[in-house]
Specification:
It is found in: Membrane. Helix content is about 50%, strand content about 10%. By secondary structure, it is of the alpha+beta class. Helix 6 packs across helix 9 (about 230-255).
């Protein structure tokens, strides 16, 4: 309790001075409690004399349990926020093969709108209970400062979330643990602020060196093969901590100038931040995660991402806006100069005297926070060791020297294809030439292609011929389209030409890589199949078994090609108009069809001018009943089929092509030297995949998804006993971070709501103002360091005593070095403060 004759605010200042905590200047900004005199300026000697050391010791002792509970709650909230946002941005399964919601600005915009709405409800509620609260009015000049703060906050949060979607969570937190050095650098520009001493700068730089070491280790070393996305994510993370430093400086200025408290700041800041992030979400294209780049394009705006999500899984968007991120994990010291008590005054009932809690927190200073972090970390680590099996068996150090070859896989397994975005159900797979990503049949969106001659989109549809009941039921994607039709598959593609061409020189069809010897029976079956196709598409069908190796000169590849009018449907969209989507259910009713009007259809196609400008859409299914590509069989010929397609093509893949032929005198063969490809897509069945070298040739950017596959596999094997997660007192702590889209989303939707974000914001602010400026940076970074260790060990499997990886040793060592550096920094600050007091 404060001594008689002394206000609560005088008592707060006296306790700060006794224990070496410098005044923040906020004591003069606090609103006096009823019945207490306004704060008066006291000298350190008089304040210390009026305060009883015994009373402060008793207050400190009685506050220990409160402070430990507060800190543990703060730690779990802060750590949970980081895990949750990583889950949202890069791990949540939107649809099979598509992970994460790489829309950081959109997520931030939604959160700020929810936070502002809750703030309005709080203001209305305060009036309803007879304790009305109104935000403090600010001048135009102060509003400009608020807008600058909103811009810095938007860049800080948005870039932090963007980097989190591109790099591992542990690396993001390690880099953001360097935020004090950017804040110190910005504060040093202000002549009114004290410049850190040389030893303090050295401690801060040690933290930066540790973060650089982890970044180098994560990239695979100097000779590593880290992708562009990795380095871009690191750069964005560094940019975010610079914005975070500016965010801190502006908030400190607002705390000292217009005296805004936490509620006022949220009220004035939320809508501008929502506007800034909403604008960024609309106009700024950015690199997206590998799964999104593999399915769509490498760069997308947040608006494009959300549009795609609404098309494939609209229900997932409802809870994204409720995901809390009111404060980033690095902003534990960003609100230290804004008094939460001003926000609480006149709004919350006074259940206890605020001066007691404040004095107790300042009396124990940072020791209790360090102790609480250690207790929590030891408890979690101990529970993990106790719940794991075979912990006594250390992994062999044979894999310690990990290089770029770690990420290569000699032969792909089913898990690798799933990680590259392919579904587990049987389907068609393939890729373009030049390679972009792996393709799949019945995808939710078409795939983009671009070459020197044209650009466009492609979509392959196929019945589930492996399951006759499913095929007949129509309960699969595009099942309504196949209902009542005999076709087994359908190919759709649209393109815009980059140069004019003559359609008489244009052919489309299928070709193979090399000559395949055929037995007499297989050759007979093939001739019958070609004859059947010729009856369907006409005399201009071209078929060649190819030239064997004993043919001198250039050899022809095996091929079967058709004239342009062999397409079953075409649509011409004039330049400037939007072409129909390849996924449009009404597409079969558009344009021209060959069925029932072959003569008119052929005449209209012969008159078609293939020139740049218009968009041409073609669909092909006419010969599909003779070839079940999913089952990799020739079909539709009695007594001869089904036959394995490998008897025709030797081995997959099968190339679907569109090319022109140049005139070469009397040469009639379709030689490679005469071909100019406008489109080339290679296909195989997931039931009959080619070798891994062929897959790599066509996979393109999908191979980025395999980074660390071997490492993850080894980690899963070594941690087989802990695959169920970490259990503490019967609670599976990290089960929520696994890739389970259904159950996990529902649980997180309940626990982390917009209301939770608002409460978390106030709670963290309440904790931050209890820390003196000398300890706030250390406590926040110690918090992050503990969270980093948890993320490394439990989520990313980087336990060096199990994996034996030097990379994992570097990560853990850098985290411990970071803790040591900021411990030294805190000691130096504390000694200097004590000497001044």
């Amino acid at each position: 309790m404060a001594p008689k004759g002394t206000s609560a605010f005088d008592f707060v200042r006296s306790i700060k001075l006794i224990h070496g905590a410098p005044s923040t200047g906020l004591e003069e900004h606090m609103v006096p409690e009823k019945g207490l005199s306004p704060p008066r300026k006291l000298s350190p000697i008089r304040s210390a004399a009026e305060s009883s050391a015994t009373d402060s010791t008793d207050t400190a002792a009685s506050s220990w349990l409160k402070e430990i509970g507060l800190f543990c709650g703060y730690f779990f909230l802060q750590t949970g926020m980081g895990f949750m946002m990583k889950f949202v941005l890069s791990k949540v399964t939107v649809v099979p093969g598509l992970k994460g919601i790489p829309a950081p600005f959109f997520v931030t915009c939604c959160q700020q709108l929810v936070s502002f709405s809750i703030m309005c409800l709080v203001l209305l509620g305060s009036r309803a209970i007879g304790r009305p609260y109104s935000p403090q009015k600010i001048s135009k000049q102060e509003m400009i400062t608020v807008l600058c703060l909103a811009a810095a906050f938007s860049l800080n949060i948005g870039s932090n979330l963007l980097s989190m979607s591109l790099i591992p969570l542990s690396l993001s937190m390690i880099i953001r643990a360097c935020s004090p050095i950017t804040t110190a650098a910005l504060q040093s520009m202000d002549k009114k602020q004290r410049t850190p001493s040389a030893p303090e700068w050295l401690c801060l730089l040690i933290g930066v060196v540790c973060a650089a070491a982890v970044t180098l280790a994560e990239s695979g070393g100097v000779a590593g093969e880290a992708s562009f996305l990795f380095f871009f994510g690191v750069a964005i993370c560094v940019f975010s901590i610079c914005c975070g430093g500016l965010d801190f400086v502006l908030k400190a200025k607002l705390g000292k100038g217009p005296k805004l408290n936490a509620l006022d700041l949220n009220f004035y800041n939320a809508l501008p931040v929502a506007c800034f992030t909403g604008l960024a979400a609309t106009v700024i294209p950015k690199p997206v995660s590998a799964t999104w780049a593999a399915r769509y394009i490498p760069q997308m705006t947040d608006l494009q991402v959300v549009k795609r999500i609404f098309q494939v899984n609209p229900s997932i968007v409802k809870w994204v806006s409720l995901t809390p991120k009111a404060l980033t994990s690095s902003s534990s010291n960003s609100l230290q100069q804004i008094s939460i008590f001003q926000a609480m005054d006149g709004l919350l009932p006074r259940l206890f005297e605020l001066s007691e809690v404040t004095a107790g927190a300042l009396a124990v200073q940072n020791e209790v926070f360090i102790l609480a972090s250690c207790v929590v970390l030891v408890a979690l680590a101990g529970s993990w060791f106790l719940s794991s099996s075979g912990t006594g068996k250390a992994a062999s150090f044979a894999g310690a020297f990990v290089d770029a070859a770690e990420h290569s896989v000699d032969e792909f397994i089913e898990e690798d294809f799933v990680s590259m975005g392919m579904p587990k159900e049987p389907h068609l797979e393939g890729g373009f030439q030049p390679p972009t990503v792996l393709l799949q049949s019945n995808s939710t969106e078409p795939y983009d292609f671009d070459n020197d001659n044209c650009r466009g989109q492609f979509l392959a549809l196929h019945r589930p011929t492996h399951d006759s009941k499913l095929s007949e039921s129509g309960r699969y994607r595009y099942g309504e389209h196949f209902k009542g039709k005999k076709r087994l598959w359908e190919l759709r593609f649209r393109f815009q030409l980059k140069r004019p061409l003559s359609q008489s020189d244009l052919f489309f069809g299928a070709e193979l890589e090399e000559y395949v010897p055929l037995s007499a029976a297989t050759k007979r079956a093939m001739d019958l199949s070609v004859s059947g196709m010729r009856l369907v598409v006409g005399d201009r069908l071209y078929h060649s078994p190819g030239d064997p190796e004993d043919v001198e000169g250039e050899r022809e590849r095996p091929a079967i090609t058709l004239p342009l009018w062999a397409f079953d449907q075409y649509i011409v969209t004039p330049e400037g108009e939007a072409p129909p989507e390849l996924t449009d259910p009404d597409l079969p009713n558009m344009g021209h069809k060959r069925f029932g009007q072959l003569r008119e259809y052929r005449r209209s196609l012969d008159a078609l001018e293939l020139v740049p400008g218009p968009t041409f859409t073609f669909c092909f299914w006419g010969v599909s009943r003779f070839c079940d590509v999913l089952q990799w069989q020739a079909t539709g010929i009695p007594m001869f089929t089904p036959l394995d397609l490998n008897q025709y093509c030797g081995r997959p893949p099968l190339h679907f092509v569109l090319y022109t032929l140049t005139d070469n005198g009397e040469e009639t063969r379709h030689l490679q030297s005469r071909k100019t490809y406008f489109f080339r897509c290679s296909f195989w069945s997931s039931l009959r995949r080619p070798g891994s070298d062929v897959v790599r040739h066509f996979a393109g950017r999908s191979l980025d998804l395999l980074r660390g596959t071997n490492k993850a596999r080894k980690s899963q094997q070594s941690n087989a006993g802990t695959s169920a997660g970490v259990s503490l007192f019967g609670i599976n702590l990290f089960q929520c971070c696994s890739d389970r889209p259904g159950e996990a989303l529902e649980n997180w939707d309940v626990v982390f709501s917009g209301l939770g974000a608002f409460v978390y914001n106030l709670y963290v602010t309440f904790m931050v103002v209890k820390l003196s400026p000398a300890t706030s940076a250390f406590a926040g970074n110690f918090n992050k360091s503990a969270a980093i260790l948890l993320s490394l060990v439990f989520l990313e499997g980087a336990a060096p005593w199990k994996t034996g990886s030097l990379r994992d040793f570097a990560k853990i060592g850098a985290v411990l070095g970071n803790i040591a550096a900021f411990t030294c920094y805190n000691v130096l600050k504390k000694r200097k403060t004590a000497s001044k007091a």
